[in-house]
Amino acid sequence: MRLMPPGAARSAPFDCEKWKQRPATARADERLGLHDVYSVPLVGCGDTDSIVTRALEILLRYEVFPPHRMRHHVCTDDRVIRRGAVIVQRVFAGPLAAEAAVRTDDVFDDRARGGHAGFTYTTLEGHVERGTATFSVGRDPNGAPIFRIESWSRPGNALMAAARPFLRRMQRSSVHEALRHVQAQVTASKPT
Question: CB under 8 Å to 27, separation ≥6 — which residues?
């Protein structure tokens, strides 16, 4: 984790090569720590399939968190998430921004079988947390479009364990902001 003032975090270049060298803090199939599942319905112009497709495009560009909460850089030539891609994240919290990174373990599309599409990533060494998160879009049990985040996490080190109550509140707040942000982008977008 790298701490910096918010102004520097908004303007400093991202160092993908540094983060690409970092090992993962967990295995992609590891289910340790706190388990959270969040979801929100998606509403927009067009049919359910076009709404889900537009939401997936947003996810694969990692335009999940509002810019006041996080700046990000997908370390691929086209800045689109694919398996193995590193995503550098700068999270803003009060007078500081914390930079950390994650690596995409899986990109999936099970919509043809009635499932979801999205990706799973694992935190990299230096992240405030250790764990995995899956971001997906699809249909809920009633067939309506939905955006879903599921995560397993635990503190990244002893200092983060001590700050866990504060970090949990911030994590939950950030996830709810992400749900609203994706929902608003889908609602505002036009069918393709």
Answer: 122
DSSP per-residue codes, 88-131? EEEEEETTEEEEEEEEEEEEEE-GGGT--EEEEEEEBTTSSEEE
What is the set of domains in the chain, with CATH numbers?
2-188 (3.30.530.20)
User: Do the bridges between strand 34-41 and strand 145-155 make them parallel or antiparallel, or are there none, so unpaired?
Assistant: antiparallel
pTM exceeds cut of 0.85: yes
Provide the greatest CA pair distance for the chain.
48
CB atoms closer than 10 angstroms to residue 125: 16
Are 117 and 20 a contacting pair, CB within 8 Å?
Answer: no
- Closest C-alpha to 113, from 146, 138, 145: 138
61 phi/psi in degrees, rounded to 5: -95, 0
pLDDT (tens, 9 = 90+) of the chain, 192 residues, equals: 888 888 999 999 999 999 999 999 988 787 888 899 999 999 887 889 999 999 999 999 999 999 999 999 999 999 999 999 999 999 998 889 999 999 999 999 999 998 999 999 999 999 888 899 999 999 999 999 999 999 998 866 666 666 677 777 778 888 899 999 999 999 887 765
Contact predicate 105/28, CB 8 Å: yes
